[in-house]
Design brief:
Keywords: Phosphoprotein. This protein is of the alpha/beta class. It is 52% helix and 16% strand. The two termini are 24 Å apart.
Length: 354
């Protein structure tokens, strides 16, 4: 993962230059570059979180949600964020700040979330935490009830800070209250978890956030509403020439309520994509007639598919393929060999994020 993060950073200067060009055009009164801005932001929305930079994803989402006349400010925030990423020396770990006064919870979170490439810093009170707010945190986990402060006020404070305005916040609460949950989410938290919690489930939620995806508990209602507007199973385009791999994927996706259209080469997949709607595409990198990269580039040129999530399949040891895929507009990747459960989890994340 460290090598992938380094490759991601190395590929950012051309993107920064392109974004600065767009900003200059917008400041000059031209809105003809709006599509360029959205294309670049869409690329960064997917790749930022995948490489462990959720703030990049959040900043890119702000650009995508802005109108052409309001796009300059979020673009400048995105560029500033990218410059900070480029300035990393490569040894920077994903940093998580935990604000909770319970020593047992502190130890549990350190044991659950701490790993190679992740550093967990603990503060037992608001007084201890405030000097740390200037840090470059990938995630802040906040207890709703602190000995010297109300978690809701702390959320406001974090959101008003220049360094932490885009930092994801996960709230922990010993009280089961839908009102408190809704209030925290309205103030800017991205997730609300009740105590006691299952460590594995909390890890999954935190991992989703660190990959730039909102947990389903916040977005579940929206997803159901969107699905109800389109009756019938959701269709996924699968371009994979290996029959064994394709069968494994199809079997798992069908059991999870998806419809799968399988193509054995890129040329066939392109023809199908031009005539049928899909919620997501899974493309193998190495295929006959047209490989996954060429297919990806052609799909991204189709207006109706510019926003469709696309996941790439590539073998272990081919991490450079991952970087190239993101440069061409992919939203995610899975390294072979993979577990079907991992594949479905990544698909669900992309569909929630889309």
């Amino acid at each position: 993962m460290r090598e992938l993060r380094a490759a991601f950073r190395e590929g950012l200067p051309p993107l920064i230059e392109a974004l600065e060009g767009v900003i200059g055009e917008l400041r000059g009164g031209s809105i003809d570059v709006e599509d360029d801005a959205r294309r670049l932001a869409h690329q960064l929305k997917g790749s930022g979180g995948s490489f462990g930079y959720p703030k990049v994803t959040n900043a890119a989402v702000e650009v995508l949600q802005a109108s052409a006349t309001e796009m300059v400010e979020p673009l400048e925030v995105l560029v500033a964020m990218l410059r900070r990423v480029v300035a990393e020396d490569g040894s920077t770990a994903t940093q998580i700040l935990v604000i909770d006064d319970d020593p047992l919870i502190q130890r549990l979170l350190v044991a659950t979330l701490g790993s190679e490439g992740r550093e967990v810093v603990v503060a037992g009170s608001l007084k201890e935490a405030e000097p740390l707010f200037s840090g470059d945190w990938s995630l802040i986990i906040l207890d709703l009830f602190l000995p010297d402060g109300d978690g809701r006020e702390v959320i406001k404070q974090i959101r008003e800070g220049v360094e932490t305005a885009l930092t994801p916040i996960l709230v922990l609460s010993g009280a089961s209250s839908s009102h408190a949950r809704d209030e925290c989410l309205d103030l800017g938290a991205v997730a609300f978890v009740e105590k006691p919690f299952v460590p594995g489930e909390l890890f999954e939620i935190a991992d989703q956030i660190l990959h730039g995806v909102l947990p389903s508990q916040q977005t579940q209602g929206q997803v159901v509403e969107e699905e109800s507007d389109e009756p019938g199973p959701r269709a996924i385009l699968l371009a994979e020439d290996d029959e064994l791999t394709a069968t494994l994927i199809k079997d798992r996706l069908l059991r999870n309520g998806f419809e799968v259209v399988h193509c054995t080469n890129g040329h066939e997949a392109l023809e199908v994509a031009e005539t049928q709607p899909f919620v997501l595409a899974i493309l193998d990198v190495k295929m006959p007639r047209m490989d996954g990269f060429e297919l990806l580039a052609k799909l991204r040129k189709l207006p109706q598919l510019m926003e469709m999530p696309i996941m790439m399949l590539t073998g272990m040891g081919s991490e450079h393929d991952v970087v190239r895929g993101f440069e061409l507009g992919a939203d995610g990747y899975v390294l072979k060999p993979f577990s079907p459960a991992e594949l479905v989890a990544r698909i669900d994340r992309l569909l929630v994020q889309a």
